[in-house]
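Here we describe the complex-level prediction in full. Unlike the single-chain runs in Section 2.1, the three entities below were treated as one system.
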Amino acid sequence: MKLKPAAFIPELLRHLFKRPATIEYPFEKLKVPDDFRGTPVLKSELCIVCRACVRDCPAFAIEIETLSEEEKKYKMTIHNDRCIHCAQCVESCPTKALFMNDEFEIATDSRLKLKAEYTYTRPKKSGQQSQTG
Amino acid sequence: MAVIKALIYLLVYPGILFLFVYSTFCEWFDRKLYARLQNRIGPAYTGRSGILQPVADFLKLMFKEDIVPENADRTIFSSLPVIGLAIVLTAGLYLPLWNINVSVPSFNSFQGDIIVVLYLLSLPTLVLFLAGWHSTNFFSTLGGVRVLTMLFGYEVPLFLAVLSPAIVADSWRLAEIADFYQKFPFLLLFQIIGFFVAVVALQAKLERTPFDIPHAETEIVGGTFTEYSGKKLAFFRLMTDVEMVVGSGLIATVFLAGFSGGVFLGLLKFILKTLFVIAILSLIKAACSRIRIDQMVIFSWKYLAPLAVLQLLISIIVKGVIQ
Amino acid sequence: MKKITIPIGPQHPALKEPISLRITIEGEVVKHADVRLGYNHRGIEKLAESRTYIQNIYLVERICGICSHSHTTCYVQGVEKLCGLEVPKRGLYIRMLVCELERIHSHLLWLGVAAHEAGFDSLFMYTWRDREVVMDLLEIISGNRVHYAINTIGGVRRNLNEIQKEKILEGIKFLKKRTEYYTNLGTTEPTFVARIAGVGILPKEKAIALCAVGPTLRASGVSSDIRKDDPYAAYDEIPFDLCTADTCDVLGRVVVRVKELIESYKIVEYIIKNLPQGEIKVKAPRKIQPAEVVSRYEAPRGENIHYIKSNGTDKPERLKVRAPTLANYPATIEMLKNCFVADIPLIFAAIDPCICCAERFVELIDAKKGNSTVLSMAEIRKKYYSTETKRNVVWPL
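The structure predicted for the assembly as a whole is:
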């Protein structure tokens, strides 16, 4: 093994006039790939309330509340503050009602703002839905 | 009139104000160049391409909480940063930048001022040692001891290297040395070895990689600066920056023929030449890894000191040939 | 000279995670070292007992950020053995592909960290810049940069398409070139070599006696690799060399890791070129008959062991994790003896420590009487968290 003093200098000087590899992040953003696991979102018209997602979620981030048994009205709450973005719910869902979007900058100052609520009725025709959060 | 001029000299140019502004600019230049060598952006937001970042850092530190360790000697602990800054600012006054008449010695340019500058540049090292010692923290003490150990390594080569151009110029006055090499620029070619020895020794004096041993953060936390915070740390950082400017200014004076040509041309030359020296310092910083303290001392005495002696020998021979 | 004991950690710039090294020094020379653990215990093993097998995949993934795939693969392999599942070939190959990409990213990261500990920040910046390439590849394959979550019981969750294959080959080609450059640089740059050569000596006999694992062991001249010794997944079908070095120092550990990088590139190329067709996973049962299993896996840092015991329900009775870092601690103490203070971070970093991986157990011992106690969560809350829980926040745990 032979030692070469200043072995790194050519490489350093070569990069002096090249574009930096880093970007000015908050002002410039990199694109995420197509299958990125971002924030889980519910397409409530597809949900059949089988509760597979509730059962499999490792962070207990999904809750389904029964608002009224006769009207088949349900409320799903996705706690994004607990969500670990593993997309197990997407995989467990038999009707593909859940999917992950490409949003990753979801930090806020309160965990209450991270709650996503979906109110919907189960039958074929889609009921009213509201989303907060 | 002379009093006003002297006051301007002390406070504005090239005194406190200029040295403050220019040293922050040099820190920005160093950081930016270092970042670009590493394929990064470097400071980007404060001011145009981050040029005000060092000033912002300085101001931020000024407003931070200032803590003095319980067991430390409060007076010495608090006064050391100010003393250190004052010493390097004083050293800056002797650079032959403005208000210099080569034929007439004055309060800021006299026979032997090169020695004064060299010793003034040695004092901050002592200040750093005392700062480390008085912090009463183990890591600081170890850093302080390392500062002194390193001093024995690089100080002799630095002195020999800086003084050998003076031998050829036959003067101990910075202005005259610079003036001499203005007249005979080709003689500088014989000082190349000395130039590199001086730059490497300055790198060690400024405690930059590969010689950042006294404040190696992954080994001894902050070294001498471990216990310093707030204003005091800001002063120490400013001290290092000013020391970098003065040190590179000294090297530019004796090895790169000084800064003649009046106020504006002189200033331009000063900026170009010091930035050149600082660029070399940054390149060394980027190209090396930190060495151990024993390796540093061995390196100094095995390579730097013999090279400096060789340079001295060359200078004496050159002088003999000229005469 | 007077002996002084200094604390390196739990908070220290050289340490990326909390651990306490009590170092006794004489001047600049280390005379004695002691490792104290327990600053990062999260109770993951206990937590695993209250979750289903599926949920546990994501839990064990979070044991470590760097070798997240190692822990899931080790766990999932164990569970598959428990329920006797035959994983399809394609699934195994994709699993191995992520394994090797993870090894590449881990070793590049380690190279950067080692350079940083030695004060060589430029090399640190360059290796981490190039590591981004493999991070992007992992993101393309799995959808996330750190927690890939590609494993599931019975196979993998995502398939690989042609565009992804091409991108992987492209990235590997670039990385190959860069790694060769770093091999060259890391072994010839005088200041860097001066720092790593002859530092942290661990002789072969000591390495075996102290049960070192992974690159630390291989750098002492012992050829041991679970991929060869006890092949899991489909490693018996893949041609690759075992990398060792006989210098027994930090330089050897750098050389072993850089050589392993080159081997990993070859493995990735082989996997992409010989990817079998077919299914990627089989359906797994939710409940598992009582049994127990030990699963071994060669993580980037060394041998990873998971022990799983099932009890007929959908939750494991016991999950025990032995991470590679824990096996390397005794060897670290041996290496630290008689080194310089300046070498402590380098030697410690050379085992590629992952402290949160190794923090599996905490025992509360009375300092005066010496007997251990058990504290329930309620008692801990009462004792250490005096503030009341905020309203509005509903926490199910």
